[in-house]
Structure formats: structure tokens, C-alpha cells
Amino acid sequence: MWTPEGFSHAKNIAGLQGSRTLGKENPSTAPMRLVLDLKAETMTVEVKVEETKVAEGVVVPQEEPEKDVVVEESKNDVKGAAEVKEVDAAGDVGPKTVQKSSSYKEESNFLSDLKEFERKALSELKLKLEEAILGNSLFKKEGAKKKEVEKPLEEEKEKEKETKEGKESGEQEGEKKEDVKPEGVSEKEKTVQEREEEEKTEVVIEGEKSEEIDRDVSIWGVPLLPSKGSEGTDVVLLKFLRARDFKVNDALEMLKKTLQWRKESNIDSLLDEEIGVDLSSAFYMNGVDRKGHPVCYNIYGVFENEELYAKAFGDEEKRKQFLRWRFQLMEKGIQKLDLRPDGISSLLQISDLKNSPSPSKKELRTAMSKAVTLLQDNYPEFVAKNIFINVPFWYYAFNALLSPFLAQRTKSKFVFVRPAKTTETLLKYVPAEEVPVHYGGFKRESDFEFSSKDGEVSELVIKAGSTETIEIPAAEVGATLLWDLTVVGWEVHYKEEFVPSDEASYTIIIQKGKKMSSNEEPTRNTFRNNEPGKVVLTIQNSSSKKKRALYRYKTKKNASY
Question: Which of 98, 208, 428, 498 is 20 to 30 A from 347 via CA?
Fold first, then answer.
């Protein structure tokens, strides 16, 4: 049964960035449409489980249930749309070979690359921001305090007036005014007047302080006063403009609210803050993608551990610590960015939904809902792409419900990946040497064997029904050869041998023939040769579809031991 709590959970996991818009649907017809969508989605997922969902999320039909629907990756990468292809039940649509993403390009922050209306909006926002800073209207005024002070003061004066009138009416008519000594009243009046003057003085003083202009106001280390000419100012302002579809007033209001939130929450001091909770197993930065974007991983499955769950969400105080920890991680990620027109100014986010807690976890749902709201409202356009891996079936159904409430710009950044396609898709965006080994890449914790100096990873295509070999030369006797290898595209047959240069010598079997699939961790092996020769890695593809092998190797000489 689909519940509002489940819908909220789906929105939380999405980790949205950017603006939110409501879907334009007829409320009277929406419920029936959603039911039809869910039924169609169930049929689709059962028939085609290996397809990668991209961009808008799930596209589901409302008619012709006798045909299967496959969501394919759109050729129009700029819009991030999805195409629907109908095939007969008996037909076969094979998975595409994942190439390096050619369309994965961050929007330009150079003025010359902006459209005319974008340049105009940026100029207008800079003008309004300059006026707001110099006019000291960027932050909330102390006027609210003044009104709060004046209101009780007026009430007290009114009460004093009523008391005085009541006493005066009880006096005898013939009594002279100067003979009357309403000492208590005079003292009270004097007290009220003194308090009034004191409060007025305080308000004036506060007003004088508020008139001090802060020309050095900044965000993420970037000065915001346009007349200072910082090259990072345009980059930051464009983020707010893009998050609000280049509506200048909306962007300025969003920026003001962000600055106010950072001030009230002491975000600028968050980097140096010691936070009691440690959630580094759930959220962490690790490596960069092919374009240099720092990669942020969100591992939701770890919250199945009851101890960690209680540590993060056990009570209100712990949930507050969780939020500050998450914002601290975001600030650390931004520290890795280069907020200049020619710099990398956004992150790649990878969310692993394997063993993700169910929507019934109220504490997690509440905390994540607040985190998502604050992140999208105060860190606009800091996520270039949001890849969801190991996506379970139920999430596609929730996404069908969530999609109408998301802006097209937000949806265009989403990539949904089934477990069987995890490695293949990650390698499209992240180089193999930066993909963690448990996701099919070559990156291992505390790995001292390979480094960036050892060169890039090589790729070998194994055509359908063919066999390919990789040769690692071992000309120097006593050297140690080390290699990594992984296969993309399901199973192949694999073996390792050392073949001596001397034909009279025997071939040495290093690894007997075995099956290897992309679901396994990459193979790492070593061999020390006692005579010149070569290590031969043999990959046999018996299937009807081509495969890809990624590998790297190095030779360590005797001197290193």
C-alpha cells in the first residue's frame, strides 16, 4: 500500500538540489492516473530489469497493457528526457554499451557563453545585490525588535492613564490641584517615561549599529559585493539564478534567506566544529569524476544497523547533530571546488539504495526531510549529477509519484541504475581508478601498490564469440608484476599464465580458468618471474554481445624489496 510516509521517504532519499515546482495536474484525475502508472510500472520492471533509468525518472504508459515498455537513454542529453520504445513480448532489446558520457558537461559560467536573457538577469541581480549591501538591507533589520519594545510600552502607558483618571475622578471638586500629591502616580509616570526614553535610546543605538555597512559580506569564501570585481561572484550568483529559473527577485530573496540561515546557524564556523556523531560510513567524499567533480557518496544501507541508527536519529538532540554533521560535509565538499568561471564548481553525488531502510523509519524520514529541504534551499546548483545505484523495485514506483512535483531541471540530473548495471554506469561518469573496488572499480583503501603516477587504466573490447589476450612483459628476472582487471558486461571466461621467452621452458599457470562477471570485485594478482617472459591474461567471450575489460599493471624491480 502506498502511503504519504512512503512518498515522503522517496523524496528524502532523492537528495534534491535546486528549485521545487508543483506538477500541473487536475487534482480530480491525478489519483486514478497514479494507480494506472503503478500498475504499468510493475509490468515494465518485471519484463526489463536491466535497463538504466535516466533523467526524468520513470515513464509509464496508461494504455495498451498488452505491450511491454522499456525506458531507454535519450539521445538528447541536454534536456535529459527519456524515450519510450514499444516492443513485442517476444522481442529482445539488448543493453547498450556504456561509453564515457559526452554530454556530461557543467553549464558555463563565462559571460560570453550565457544567453542574452541570462546575462541580463545576472546584471540586474548584481545591481540589486549592490543596492541591498550598500543599503544595509541584505539581512533582517532590527525593526522587529523595536516594534516588540514599543507595543508593551504603549500598553503600560494606557494602563497608567486609566489608573490616573480613576483616581482623579474620586477626588473632591473643591480641592485645589496643587494640594493634591499623587506621589504613587507621579513615580509610576516617571518610571514609564524613563523606561520609554531608555528603550528609545536602545532602539536608536541598535539602529545606529545596523546602519554600519558590511562591504566584506561573503559566502563560501567569495565576496558578494559586485563592485569588488571578484571573479567568483558571478559563479555564485548564477547558481541562485539557475535555481530560480533566472527570476531575479526570487534569486535575490533566496540568497538573502541563505545568508540569514548561515548567520543564525553559525555555518561559517562549522568547518572547525567538533560534532559528537560520526557518520562517515554513511556520507563521505571519495575521489573525483572524469570532469574533476569531487564525488560524494550517500550509503543509506548502513542505517539498518540499529546502533548507528540510534546514534544518528535516537532523539531530537541527535537529529540536530546529524543535520550539522551533514552540512559540515557539504561545506567540506565545497572547499574542494573552484568557484571561478573556469573552475569545477559542483559535486557529483552517488546515492546507494542497497538495503535502504523502509519508509516506516519515522526518525530517519523526518531528519532526511529536513536535511533535503535545507540543502536544496541553501546550496543551490551544487550537484551536477545525482546517480542512484542499486535501486530497488519499490523506488521506481515511488519515483513515479514523486516526479510530478519536481522541476524539469532537477529531474534532468537524475540517473537511476539497477544493481546489474551499477559498475557499467559508474564507469561512464567516474574513471575506474576512482571507483571503489566494491563497486567494480580499482580504488582500494590504503592502497600503496598503485597511484596516479602509474598511468591511466586501459580498455579492451572483446567482441561476441571471440577471445582476447593482454600481455604484460617481464623481461627482467626477479621482478614482481602486479595487475588489476575487471570486466564490464556480464560473464566471461578468464585465466592467467606466465609464458617464458625460452620455448623449451614450461608455461606456468598463475590462475586457472574461471568465470568472471561484472558483479564481482576486480581481480588483483601478482607474479615474480625467475626467467624472462610475459604474463598473459586470456579473456574468452562466449556470448552474443561484446564485453569490455579494464586493466592496469606495473612492474616492481628487485630494488624495491
Answer: 98
Across the strands, what pairs with 389? 352
Q: Read off the DSSP letter of residue 297.
A: E
531: CB partners within 8 A, 6+ apart:
477, 500, 501, 502, 505
**371 grid coordinates:** 536535511
pLDDT digits (tens, 9 = 90+) for 181-230: 444 444 444 454 555 444 443 433 444 444 688 899 999 999 999 999 99
Domains of the chain from N-terminus onward: 114-131+218-265 (1.10.8), 273-448 (3.40.525.10), 456-556 (2.60.120.680)
pTM: 0.69
- Give the Cα separation of 486 and 506 in Å (integer): 28
Beta strands in 37-183 (DSSP E): 53-54, 68-73, 82-87
| Bridge partners, residue 439, by sequence | none
319 CB-near residues (< 8 Å, 6+ apart): 312, 313, 363, 366, 367, 370
Burial class (CB in 10 A: 0-12, 13-18, 19+), 475: exposed
* Confidence at residue 402, expressed as pLDDT on a 0 to 100 scale: 66
Per-position b or e across 502-538, b if 16+ CB within 10 A of its CB: eeeeeebebeeeeebbbeeebbbeebebeeebbbbbb
